[in-house]
Design a protein that fits this description.
- The structure holds two protein chains of two kinds.
- In chain A, 0% of the residues lie in helices and 53% in strands.
- By secondary structure, chain A is an all-beta fold.
- In chain A, the strands form three sheets. In chain A, strands 2, 5, 6, 10, 11 and 12 form a six-stranded mixed β-sheet that branches. In chain A, strands 3-9-8-7 form a four-stranded antiparallel β-sheet, with no helix packed on it.
- In chain A, strand 8 (64-69) and strand 9 form a beta hairpin.
- Chain A is globular.
- By secondary structure, chain B is mainly β.
- Helices cover 0% and strands 50% of the residues of chain B.
- Chain B contains no helices and eleven strands.
- In chain B, the strands form two sheets. In chain B, strands 2, 4, 5, 6, 9, 10 and 11 form a seven-stranded mixed β-sheet that branches. Chain B has a four-stranded antiparallel β-sheet with strand order 1-3-8-7, with no helix packed on it.
- Chain B is globular.
- The N and C termini of chain B lie far apart (36 Å).
- The chains are: A mainly beta, B mainly beta.
């Protein structure tokens, strides 16, 4: 079974600065997908970014980018030019392409953004 | 684009009562999921469905029943609600193919309190 670990329960950043959220995972599979979801106080789960394991190029979505290290099983999220609206819980998630094909989530990192 | 909708959004019920949470998606996604989210546990899979009339248990299925007679609907029933089932419930759906990025999309959540 796969596991996802987010070692930072909480992170803080000031507006306009850059912050990196860490995620590691454990799997024996070679093909899979990784995701970061954002959950604001409304509790809506919002997709931030997606990475296919077979792609070496790191995914980027505007101010959000990832550092995907397949051999190290690491998938960190970098948020540039942080905004107050980025404050939320962030979940790293793994999707297998076999079996349940569901998402395995980390415990989440709470991101605090200060003016 | 209605996407994925859950109802009711908020529900208070008494111990022992039967409760059904509804989930409807307009994307014709083959896969549908039910998760619950509790403090300290993150998101845990209750049931999933790979297609109409195909369902299977997830990590925490006890006390829950699902059905999927139509592709677009995936109701979750608590047969006899208990206080431990107080939680936020998320329905989710996806295709399972590289074109869609294997992305799982979430509803807004149903907040259930059992008293």
């Amino acid at each position: 079974a796969q596991t996802v670990t987010q070692s930072q329960p909480e992170m803080s950043v000031q507006e306009a600065e850059t912050v990196t959220l860490s995620c590691t995972y454990d799997t024996s599979e070679s093909d899979y997908y990784l995701f970061w979801y954002k959950q604001p106080p409304s509790r809506q789960m919002i997709l931030v970014i997606r990475q296919e394991a077979y792609k070496q190029q790191n995914a980027t979505e505007n101010r959000f980018s990832v550092n995907f290290q397949k051999a190290a099983k690491s998938f960190s999220l970098k948020i540039s030019d942080s905004q107050l609206g980025d404050a939320a819980m962030y979940f790293c998630a793994y999707r297998s392409l076999s079996g349940y094909s569901t998402l395995t989530f980390g415990k989440g990192t709470m991101l605090l953004v200060s003016p | 684009d209605a996407g994925i909708t859950q109802s009711p959004r908020y529900k208070i019920t008494e111990t022992g009562r039967q409760v059904t949470l509804m989930c409807h998606q307009t994307w014709s996604h083959s896969y549908m999921f039910w998760y619950r989210q509790d403090l300290g546990h993150g998101l845990r899979l209750i049931y999933y469905s790979a297609a109409a009339d195909i369902t299977d248990k997830g990590e925490v299925p006890d006390g829950y029943v699902v059905s999927r007679s139509k592709t677009e609907n995936f109701p979750l029933t608590l047969e006899s609600a208990t206080r431990s089932q107080t939680s936020v419930y998320f329905c989710a759906s996806s295709f399972r193919d590289s074109t869609s990025g294997n992305t799982i999309y979430f509803g807004e959540g149903s907040w259930l309190t059992v008293v």
